[in-house]
Design goal:
Strand content: 15-25%
CATH topology of the largest domain: Nucleotidyltransferase, domain 5
Structural class: alpha/beta
CATH superfamily of the largest domain: ATPase, nucleotide binding domain
Shape: globular
CATH class of the largest domain: Alpha Beta
Number of strands: 13
C-alpha cells in the first residue's frame, strides 16, 4: 500500500506517493498559501487528489514546522507560516480528507527518513542536523524517534554556542541558529563588507548563502572565512551531541550543507576536538542522502506504521 506524504514548509508544500519500502514515486510541489491554515488545508487536499487521481488516501503523513504537539495534532504559532496561531491541523485535515492523518515535526520527519532509507540506515542511535534557513535536528535512540517530554527534543539550533554571540531569530542570544544558519552567514558577511573587508561579493544584492558558498569555492577569502566560522560553531555543537548521546551516526543535511567541504572540513575538525575520543571513534558523520525527500520518506514511515 502506498501512502501519501506531505512536507509543509513556509515557501513550498511538497507531496508524494511513497511505497512501503520508502521509494518516492509521483510527487509535486506547490507554493504555500500565505492566507492562513484553511488555505493550506485546501492546498494539501488538492495535492492529494492530484496524486491519487481523485481517489482517497488510506493514510496521510504530514511533516510540519514546529512547535507542535504530536499527541494532540496541534501546531502552535510556527514562525514561518503566516497567520497561524494555535491550529488543530490534524483534525482539519482528517475532516477534509476523511482519512487518518499523522503529524510530525519536519526535522524529526527528516531524521526518520535518513535513518530508515538514507545515510543513517542500519543504525540504532542517530542524530540528524539540518542547516538551512534555520538549524534543526532529530534524535533516534534505540531505533525509535525521541521526542522528549513535550515534543520539542532535538532543537539543535537553540543550543548556546556563544553566550556573547548575536541574537537568534527566536529572540535569545548565542544560539547556533543565529550563527550557522544561511541568513546568519549572510548577515555576518554583510557586516564584514560594511567594515571594508575585500571580497568579490561586494555589490552583490541580494546576497544569499548560496552566493557565499559559490564564492568560497572560487577562493574568496571572506566567503571561506564565513563558512569556516559557521562550520566551527556547528562542529562544536556536533561534538557536544556526540558526548551527550553517543550516537553511531550524525547526519548533516539542509541547503547550507550543500556547500560541501567548505563547511564540513571545519565542522569535522571542531567536532573531533570537542568530542571525547571514545564518542568520536564510535561515530561517523555523514552528509544527508535523501536531500529534500527526507521529510516525505520520514512521515511516510510513520504513516505506514499505523
Amino acid at each position: 500500500m502506498h501512502v501519501v506524504a506531505v512536507d509543509l514548509g513556509g515557501t513550498w508544500v511538497r507531496a508524494g506517493r511513497v511505497s512501503p519500502d520508502g521509494e518516492v514515486g509521483a510527487s509535486l510541489r506547490v507554493a504555500t498559501p500565505q492566507s492562513g491554515p484553511q488555505a493550506v488545508v485546501e492546498t494539501i487536499a488538492a495535492a492529494v487528489r492530484e496524486l491519487l487521481e481523485g481517489g482517497r488516501p488510506g493514510r496521510l503523513g504530514v511533516a510540519v514546522p514546529g512547535p507542535l504537539s504530536v499527541r494532540e495534532g496541534v501546531v502552535f504559532k510556527p514562525p514561518n507560516l503566516h497567520g497561524w496561531g494555535e491550529v488543530p491541523l490534524r483534525a482539519m485535515l482528517q475532516d477534509r480528507l476523511g482519512c487518518p492523518v499523522v503529524l510530525e515535526n519536519d526535522a524529526n520527519a527528516a531524521a526518520l527518513g535518513e535513518w530508515w532509507r538514507g545515510s543513517g540506515r542500519g543504525s540504532r542511535h542517530m542524530v540528524y542536523v539540518t542547516v538551512s534557513t534555520g538549524v534543526g535536528g532529530g534524535i533516534i535512540l534505540d531505533g525509535a524517534l525521541y521526542r522528549g517530554a513535550s515534543d520539542v527534543a532535538g532543537e539543535v539550533g537553540h543550543v548556546v554556542v556563544d553566550p556573547a554571540g548575536p541574537v537568534c531569530p527566536c529572540g535569545r542570544v548565542g544560539h547556533l541558529e543565529g550563527i550557522a544558519a544561511g541568513p546568519a552567514i549572510v548577515r555576518w558577511v554583510e557586516g564584514r563588507l560594511r567594515e571594508g573587508a575585500p571580497s568579490t561579493l561586494r555589490g552583490h544584492h541580494p546576497l544569499t548563502a548560496e552566493d557565499v558558498a559559490a564564492a568560497a569555492w572560487r577562493g574568496d577569502r571572506l566567503a571561506r572565512e564565513a563558512f569556516e566560522r559557521a562550520g566551527r560553531y556547528l562542529g562544536w555543537a556536533v561534538g557536544g551531541l556526540l558526548n551527550l548521546l553517543n550516537p553511531e551516526v550524525v547526519v548533516v543535511g539542509g541547503g547550507v550543507a550543500r556547500a560541501g567541504a567548505v563547511l564540513f572540513e571545519p565542522m569535522l575538525e571542531a567536532a573531533r576536538a570537542t568530542a571525547f575520543p571514545r564518542a568520536w571513534e564510535a561515530a561517523r558523520v555523514e552528509r544527508a542522502a535523501l536531500d529534500d525527500r527526507a521529510g516525505l520518506v520520514g512521515v511516510a514511515y510513520l504513516a505506514l506504521q499505523g
